[in-house]
Amino acid sequence: MMINGYTRTCGVFGNPVEHTMSPAIHNTIAEDMGFNMVYVPFHVPTGHIKEAVEGAFALNLLGCNVTVPYKSDVIPHLKEIDGLAEKIGAVNTLVRLENGFKGYNTDMPGLYRAMQEDGVEVRDRAVIILGAGGVARAVAMLLAEYGASKVYILNRTFEKAEAIASEVNGLYGKNVVTAMTLADHQNLTGEGYLCIQATNVGMYPDVDSAVIEDESFYRKLEVGYDLVYRPGKTKFMTLTETYGGKAFNGLKMLLWQGVIAYELWTETKVTDAQAQKAFQAMKTAMGL
């Protein structure tokens, strides 16, 4: 694609951001659509997210993504925030308005879209979340939103899991989320669980670790989703498959959150074929 005076710019704010796969998604889709746009990473130094948002608007950027560590820090500097992003307390997509940016969260809809594509149903299902950080909190809200029958948050620190459970249960007016320690996995009865791995354990270079390594835990899982996507197969995924479950990584979540963001910026609809081209471009960029 030729860059000229009419080229619109989008990008991603983060620190670090150099490893991002998002340019492969957006530039591939824009080229396939014939849309004159370029997407680039923006390394935002600590303490400068306010200036980044103001600068992006002043420079007429069409839209932006936001990644760690700014998904919550960016919120005070927005003109509006979408309802889902407000509930989650995290924004990863900025859409240009006349007087500033509106914040959206496309991470959780992206995860839901990925699970749908993989044939994984959430409604009326018992789900385990490993971890109690910001991502786990957002996943718990997503599961409550889409009708999971029960959500168990397992974390090393019980108090962090308990805080999320209390917040989500209060927000949705039902007792759907239960907090547990990691060791409490032994108290989970039955089989057929969907488990979402929402920690950084197992992420490159710590590829030989999993939050739980007890084989009895993995025998209870029907599906394991690791939100880590580097490496392509984590130890959590290997253990899930070893004991009979299906395992997926976070790459499709990354794809679909990007597709949803692109659609918000351009007011267009990305076809499945275009999304698959972007998915292949991501895998190529990762050397997969």
Structural features, described:
With 288 residues, the protein is α/β, with parallel strands linked by helices. 38% of the residues lie in helices and 20% in strands. The chain has ten helices and twelve strands. The protein has helices at residues 22-33, 49-58, 83-88, 107-117, 134-145, 158-172, 215-218, 235-242, 251-266, 272-286; strands at residues 8-14, 37-43, 63-66, 80-81, 93-96, 101-104, 126-130, 150-155, 177-181, 193-197, 221-226, 246-248. A six-stranded mixed β-sheet has the order 2-1-3-5-6-4, sandwiched between helices. The radius of gyration is 19 Å and the shape is globular. The two termini are 25 Å apart.
Compact overview of the structure:
Helix content is 38%, strand content 20%. It is α/β, with parallel strands linked by helices.
What are the defining features of this structure?
288 residues; six-stranded mixed sheet; six-stranded parallel sheet; 10 helices; globular
* Helical content class: 25-40%
SSE-based structural type: alpha/beta
The separation of the N and C termini measures: 25 Å
Q: Averaged pLDDT, please?
A: 96
Largest sheet: 6 strands, mixed
Taken in chain order, the helices and strands follow as EHEHEEHEEHEHEHEEHEHEHH
Helix and strand layout, with pairings?
Blueprint: E1 8-14, H1 22-33, E2 37-43, H2 49-58, E3 63-66, E4 80-81, H3 83-88, E5 93-96, E6 101-104, H4 107-117, E7 126-130, H5 134-145, E8 150-155, H6 158-172, E9 177-181, E10 193-197, H7 215-218, E11 221-226, H8 235-242, E12 246-248, H9 251-266, H10 272-286
Parallel strand pairs: 1-2, 1-3, 4-6, 7-8, 7-10, 8-9, 10-11, 11-12
Antiparallel strand pairs: 3-5, 5-6
